[in-house]
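Help wanted!
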Amino acid sequence: MTGTTTATTERLTLAKALNHGMRRALENDPKVLLMGEDIGQLGGVFRVTDGLQKDFGPDRVVDTPLAESGIVGTAVGLAMRGYRPVCEIQFDGFVFPAFDQITTQLAKVHYRSRGRISLPVVIRIPYGGGIGAVEHHSESPEVLFAHTAGLRVVSPATPSDAFTMIQEAIASPDPVIFLEPKGRYWDKGDVDTSLTTGGGLDGARVAREGTDVTVVAYGPTVATALRAAEAAAAEGTSIEVVDLRSISPMDTATVAASVRRTGRCVVVHEAPVSYGSGAELAARITEECFYHLEAPVLRVGGFHTPYPVARLEHDYLPSLDRVLDAVDRALAH
Amino acid sequence: MNEPDLVQLLSPTGHRADPDAHPDLEARVAHLDAAALRELYRDMVLVRRFDTESTSLQRQGELGLFPQALGQEAAQVGSGRAMARQDYVFPSYREHGVAHVRGVDMVDVLRQFRGIDHGGWDPAEHNFHLYTLVIGSHTLHATGYAMGVQRDGLVGTGDPERDTAVVAYFGDGATAQGDTNEAFVFAAVNNAPLVLFCQNNQWAISEPTTKQSRVPIVERGRGFGVPSVRVDGNDVLACYAVTAEALERARTGGGPTFIEAYTYRMGAHTTSDDPTRYRSAAEEEEWRRRDPIDRLRLHLEQLGALDGEFLAEVEAQGEALGERLRREVRAMAAPSSGSMFEHVYATPHAGVEAERAWFAEYEALFVEEGTR
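Answered by r_m:
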C-alpha cells in the first residue's frame, strides 16, 4: 500500500525526513500525539519536531515535564484511551528512568490483557555516537529492548527509510522502540514524500550486492559498511551489505540467503559486541548456514567498557578500518 | 509526627458526626437513606467474605498467593460507590472491594492468583483496569488516561452522564515511588481529571509509613499543587463523600485531588507474609476496634435498619458467593502450554512465531512417542 498523492521526490536530511513523516502521521490520524521534553516551542534539541507544535497545537505536540518515566507512563495511559503517542527521549542515555515503564508495562500490557489492550506507542530515541558528546549522549541500548518480548525495535539508516518507517511505527498496533542514528541526522538522501509505507518494519534489505563477504549493519553503521564496501571493491573484494533495519524481529532469512551466497559474515554495530545483537545474529547464522560458512561469523562494535570520553570515541566506534580488518580476517579462513 | 485531622462522618461507635462539622461533605451523602446504607453494608460483607474464602482457597493450595483487602472495605466500597459508570479505575492489586462494586466477577479476580492468567477480566467491560503489580506504575497510566479523557472533550461539558473522571488507587508504600510522584506532577500541570486515592493501610509489607514519609502522607499533595484531604478510611460515608467531591472537581475541570484514606491492613501483606515479625498484637487489636464493617453495622442498628431478614439475606448471599468461588476456582484448568505464545504482539513477530512452531513440533514428538 502506498500513498495516493503524486510521487514527489525530495532531497532531505534524515532529521527532516522524520519531521515530514511525523507531520504526515499527525495529519492523517487525529489520535496521533507527540510528547517529549523541549519538542514543542524549541522543536527538539535536534529540531526533529521543528514547526510541528506551531501547526498542530500544544495538545498534540506536547512539551512534557522533565521526567522520562512520566512521559512513557502517561503515553501508556493515553494509548489505553485510544491515542497513538510518539514519545521523544532526548538522548539514549536518558531512557533508563523510563526503562521500567517500557519493559514492565508497555511491553507487557497486550500479553497481560490477552490481547484486549493494544499499546500503539512509539518511543523515539536518538542513539549512537560520533558527535563528540559528553557522557550518556552516545550510547546504543538496542539489545536491552530487543531482549524484551512485546517490543519491536527498529532503526532506519537512510532518510527514505526514516520517512516511511516512522509512519509505519506510528501505525503499528505494537509498541515500537524507534532508534534514530543521531550521527546521521544531517545525512541527505532522496525521499518519496508521497509514501505512507515503505519496506515495512520487519524486513532487512540488501543495501549493496556483493559476492565475497556479507556485512550486516543497521542504523549508523550502514553508511560505514557501505564505505567499507567501496574501499574493498577498489582492492578487488566484493562486499554485500545488508541493512538489518529491525533488531526485533530480526530478519535472519535475508541475512542467511546472503551468507549462503558469500560464505562469510561480519556484523557491525556501535553497541558493545558482548551479549549484543551481533552475537544473536551470529548464533542464528551459525545454526541456519553452518555448512555454507567458510569462516566464523565475526563481530565489530563497541568494547565492554562504558562509552568512552569523546576524544577516544573514534577508537571505540566500529570504523571503516575495523570493518575491513574483520573482512580480511573472515577472508583469511 | 503532628497528625492532621481525619474527615469523619461516622464515629467508630457508629454515631453520625456533628452535621455542621463538614456541611459540604454531609451534602454529598444526604441522599444515602437507610436502604442505601444497607447496600453499602452488603457490599462490605460480601467483599470480606470474598477475602476469607480466597484466603482459605490459598491455604488449601488452590491459589498460589492471595493479598487480602481485610480492613480496607470501607475505603474501597465507599470510594467505588461514589463513581459514575463512565469513570475509569486503575487499581493496584488489593482493590477487590472496588472490583466488586465495578461489577467484576469476583471469580475472575482469582484467575491471576490461580496462576492461569496475568489479568482475568475485560477492563473495558467495567472501566476497571487490570491489577498492576509494579508499585506505582499504574498511577502514570491513570494520569495519561485522564489526559486522554481531556482530549476527548469529556471534562466540564456539564452533562453528568458524559463528564468523566479517572481514579488511581495506590498505597502508602507507593507514595515513595518515583512514578507516583511523576503522576502528581503530570496530573497537576495538565489539570487532569484524576483522583489519586491512597489507602494508607500503615504497612508496606513490613515497613511502617514512617519509612516512606517524614510528613503525614496527605501533606505531600500540597507541594504538587494538588488539593488534598485525609479521610478516615474505615468510615464508608466519609470515603464516599470525599471521593464524590473529588470526582466532581475532576469532571468539572477542577483538576486532580489527592485523598489519603487512613485505614489499616488487618491481614498480612499476602498469604506469604507473617505480620507477627514486625507488628504487635496490641496494634492489631487497637485497629480491630475500628473495624469498618462493625462501624456501619452499629450505625444501622442505631437507625433500626438492620432486620433479621436482611441479615439472613446477606448471609445467604455470602454463602452462595463462597460456594461459587470454591467450585469455580477448583474447576479453573491450566491453559494449554502453547498459549504462552499468544498475544505477545498484536501483529505476528517472526521470532515468536518460529519458537511457537518449534515448540509445537517438540511437543508433538512426545505425543507420538507416547511419553505424554
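OP: Thanks! One thing I noticed: Chain B touches chain A through 42 residues (CB under 8 Å).
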